[in-house]
Amino acid sequence: MALPFATNMRFKFSSLALSLQVILIILFAIFVSYDTPHHEDSHGNSTHQEDEFIKLYPLFQDVHVMIFIGFGFLMTFLKRYGFSSVGINLLIAALGLQWGTLMQGLWHLHDGQINIDIKKMINADFSTATVLISFGAVLGKTSAVQMLIMAIFEIAIFACNEHLVVTLGAFDVGASMIIHAFGAYFGLAAARVLYRPALKNGHENEGSVYHSDLFAMIGTVFLWMFWPSFNSAIAEAGIDQQRAIINTYFSLAACVLTAYAFSSLVEHKGKLDMVHIQNATLAGGVAVGTCADMNIHPYGAMTIGFIAGIISTLGFKFVTPFLASKLKIQDTCGVHNLHGLPGLLGGLAGIVAAMLGAKEGASAGIQAAALAATIGVALVGGAITGFILKLPFWGQPPDQNCYDDSLYWEVPLDEEEQPNHYQEDQSKMKVDA
Amino acid sequence: MALPFATNMRFKFSSLALSLQVILIILFAIFVSYDTPHHEDSHGNSTHQEDEFIKLYPLFQDVHVMIFIGFGFLMTFLKRYGFSSVGINLLIAALGLQWGTLMQGLWHLHDGQINIDIKKMINADFSTATVLISFGAVLGKTSAVQMLIMAIFEIAIFACNEHLVVTLGAFDVGASMIIHAFGAYFGLAAARVLYRPALKNGHENEGSVYHSDLFAMIGTVFLWMFWPSFNSAIAEAGIDQQRAIINTYFSLAACVLTAYAFSSLVEHKGKLDMVHIQNATLAGGVAVGTCADMNIHPYGAMTIGFIAGIISTLGFKFVTPFLASKLKIQDTCGVHNLHGLPGLLGGLAGIVAAMLGAKEGASAGIQAAALAATIGVALVGGAITGFILKLPFWGQPPDQNCYDDSLYWEVPLDEEEQPNHYQEDQSKMKVDA
Amino acid sequence: MALPFATNMRFKFSSLALSLQVILIILFAIFVSYDTPHHEDSHGNSTHQEDEFIKLYPLFQDVHVMIFIGFGFLMTFLKRYGFSSVGINLLIAALGLQWGTLMQGLWHLHDGQINIDIKKMINADFSTATVLISFGAVLGKTSAVQMLIMAIFEIAIFACNEHLVVTLGAFDVGASMIIHAFGAYFGLAAARVLYRPALKNGHENEGSVYHSDLFAMIGTVFLWMFWPSFNSAIAEAGIDQQRAIINTYFSLAACVLTAYAFSSLVEHKGKLDMVHIQNATLAGGVAVGTCADMNIHPYGAMTIGFIAGIISTLGFKFVTPFLASKLKIQDTCGVHNLHGLPGLLGGLAGIVAAMLGAKEGASAGIQAAALAATIGVALVGGAITGFILKLPFWGQPPDQNCYDDSLYWEVPLDEEEQPNHYQEDQSKMKVDA
């Protein structure tokens, strides 16, 4: 079988990863310090800065779980691509949190330094989420080298767009726009550039098995549970933060009911579809993000979740096939339905909430401008990154090896696949005399 | 194969779920508000209310994990029923936390409003636990429609019984009685009404496979780890809450040793049985619940856990078969052994602790009355609910399709089951030209 | 097939487990109390002691997850040994946390009592980690009885060594030396004594299958995420604790990049190896432990993680086969590479940090003495324990049954293995008329 591209990653991947890490250490040596409290309490009591760190640390850890377990396992639904899903997710996020610290911090230097506190760590984790969302759009069709490159570009562009949105004066506490819509449309633009005509009728590996769907549910449920932390982690302490938690809690609950109802409604014989359950149940968390800390009342949050569950499920059923067949966008995980459409809904909800005066200082026009700018930056940035990723020397998989771990990983043969049971096991031994 | 009931859920399920969600949003619009702090600190410092919210938020999230990961994955032990276990668990709990907010809150209105704070969210999660426990008793033998109906009835009845117990003046900080015993006996009464004679010799799907038992251990271990949070989340801040954490921590540890010892003692050749390990190791958390915040000393907590591990394991070995063959109660998950018997033990321990003066204000007589009332309400409520669920139009599965996801879910065929590998994969493609 | 040892555990195991638990309850009755706050605030406000408990409780729970989910699932990579990995892990840790409370507390009695507070609970969990690490070295080759015995000995010796290190005046906040290096070298010494010549060419069960590797990744990722809590949980509140969190966060991120790079570099065709990804990505958490709370700057932490990822991956590739073939040490999980070498690196980093003045009061000589003492105590203690475990009546598995759950567990036959589908299922029924 002739491979169109060289997929042996030994030197390309390892030299890129090591170079990036060395550069990051040098940049950290120059730019990054601990955040030292400036105003120490004369009685030796904990200061505000210390209190904030330890108070927000549990929310940081919830976000951390969403990034590494949530996103990682959500993508393990593919039958032969679980190692890459959870493994490359870890790789991208580990790179991304270091790079995101720098890219976001460079806009806020103090005496030339980025002072690490708990909010910077939360934001660093947030910045990786954009790449992990885009990863979902191109899942199974890219190499680890390509994903490292995408992480570098996407996080840099994300940090610029975030700064733009903040400068405009828009609100987006739970990042419906600047993370979810951004990550989705960035990834979809890249996927459009990386379109593979040979996969237009699907691929035998592009499906789940029973237990891979259960692994994916680990990701789904952790994302679902901790989304209130995601939407409130950088909210202002006190009533704003509490509202963000409460609104997200109820939006997600309402979203589950509509996602299940519409999954049954659109499927054969009224059966539930795991793809919807794994993804559309989370749309309420995305969609309530922008106005999570606003005074939208719990029933307002539930209404947003209600709508999000519907559009996300309908998106999987009708929009994803349309994107694939008409727009040549092959969206492996359906990130358009989990992050794209609900992110747009979140942006629109923010505009409406601003109109209704749910947040002091919020302007509908500015919210709309932030949404438009974000989509524009994402599409252009994603397309440019897509063209870079399309260069033929990044070890991308040939069509027939898409969605297959064994191209890039040592994969154990399962029992039933082993031509010779004992022979195979010998080759897997760690200890070999 | 003729099906005795129509199991196509398309319109029944989706219309019920959507109607419930619309009604909930309307009720929330009328009755539910944020809890706004009344006494703001003049210096802009965080008030007591704000402090409590963020201090208890990590405990809330632990309880949240127990509800959605713990209960959900614990029930994935069945070989062909993992989608329903974790999926319907999510559905019931998402409905239940909204409904529980209303049912519990209606007993404590302020100016006609339920003001959401962190304890209301914890209690909302708690209220769902009752249904999830009952779900375990009827697992594999009910439809999603039936479970939505059970959730509505059970949570309403639970909230009344809880109010009764509080009004009596009984203590039950970790809810051995009002959640665990209540949920178990409610579910067992319903299971008795829903008895299926055709399953009296078991069913070929009613068993585990190797990896389904490992998925279930995810649920077990998360429940085990976070039980100290469950038993302490609504305890009085300070020494009471700390005692609840410490007592639960040591009770669970002691329970593990006895559960393992008795599993080995009663099994063939002294082998361990996964059913015991998955369930009986948790009985110490249930049984120490009522007196978790009392001054029972760590060794007292360990003694409770010690006994709980024994009765739970023996329950699985001897009581469950007896219930099935003599009382016609088919308890799929053995909730009687994990929640019923240990819940009773918890209630009894509370009576003894009250006698010994371990809690100021506690009365043995009132504790006993609360226990008796709870069991009575649960049995009557469960039986009535069972008769409602028995009506022949809720889409319950025919006997031969029990414990089988494929009746209600789109289930991927696993590789080895595929009659034609490529053909099957074509049908699973998301993208179809 | 003649078994060299009696492996029926019914009476040996259950009587040992029950006796230990009864003894523990008696010792707790004599020695263990709640920590009652001595200085109550006259205004009824929460005291320092109460604040510390609830502030550190989330970090305790993170450590708890590492012990029970992290270590437990990390070891499920073996295809037929998942029940034992997660199940015996739970058993050992449940015993160990009770025993560790006593062994550590006996060095710090107040009025003859051990007063349980949150730091004692964190330390109790820590003490179990040593045994769980050693368990990894002998995984698949020991019985539950042997592991209970190892837990009793190892935790007692650990507590003595920890006291010695504290008395010397050495620093080891994240326990690179006293937990990780100690647990690894203790386990390796025991594994040396328990050497099995018949396994020198490996064993057919000593390998993974696709989904067992995914289960193991649950353990890996939870360990990775919560390691900042492990390294900071008992640090001094304030800037020290924050530094421990920040340093561990960045060390782990850097370590991921080098572990991936070197895995690809040393493997066939540049493929990634799951063994490296599951383990070497964590080496940065181990290695930064000793100096986690020191002023080593974020780039210093990243440098430590960078090196740790490299030595750990190279250890798996080159050192483990060497140990097996030349030193007759069969290290099932490769704990030498995850805990041993990175633990040594952590100890060395602590010496260098002390030299550079990164911690007030730290002395390079004392750090070196602590490291040397720890390794010495671990090797001697492990060897002695190994000889005790080698006594021929602890039910150790015969060579041909190593790495196989079915010797000690009721294991369900998977579908494809069932000679007669219906017959097998009958035997798995819980309900049998």
The assigned structural class of chain A equals mainly alpha
Taking the sheet with the most strands of chain A, its summary is: 2 strands, parallel
Residue share in β-strands of chain A: under 5%
The 3D shape of chain A can be described as globular
The radius of gyration of chain A is 22 Å
Q: For this entry, what is the oligomeric state of its chains?
A: homotrimer
Percent helix of chain A = 55-70%
What is the count of DSSP helices of chain A, taking H or I runs of 4+ residues? 14
Instruction: Tell me which protein chains meet in the greatest interface and how many residues each side has.
Output: A-B, 74 and 74 residues
Instruction: Provide mean pLDDT of chain A, rounded.
Output: 92
H/E order of the elements of chain A? HEHHEHHHHHEHHHHHEH
Spatial sequence of strands, sheet with the most strands of chain A: 1-2
Strands of chain A, total number: 4
Low-confidence stretches of chain A: 418-433
Topology:
Three copies of one chain form a homotrimer.
Chain A (H helix, E strand, L loop, with lengths): L9 H22 E3 L13 H27 L7 H24 L8 E3 L1 H21 L5 H25 L7 H18 L16 H23 L6 H28 L5 E2 H6 L3 H5 L9 H30 L8 H21 L8 H26 L19 E2 L10 H8 L5
Parallel strand pairs in A: 1-2
Helix pairs in contact in A: 1-3, 2-3, 2-4, 2-7, 3-4, 3-5, 4-5, 4-6, 5-6, 5-13, 6-12, 6-13, 7-8, 8-11, 11-12, 12-13
Would you mind describing this structure in some detail?
- Three copies of one chain form a homotrimer.
- Chain A has a two-stranded parallel ribbon.
- Chain A is an all-alpha fold.
- Chain A has helices spanning 10-31, 48-74, 82-105, 118-138, 144-168, 176-193, 210-232, 239-266, 274-279, 283-287, 297-326, 335-355, 364-389, 421-428, and strands spanning 32-34, 114-116, 272-273, 409-410.
- The first copy, chain A, is built from 14 helices and four strands.
- Chains in contact: A-B, A-C, B-C.
- Strand 4 (409-410) of chain A pairs parallel with strand 3 of chain C.
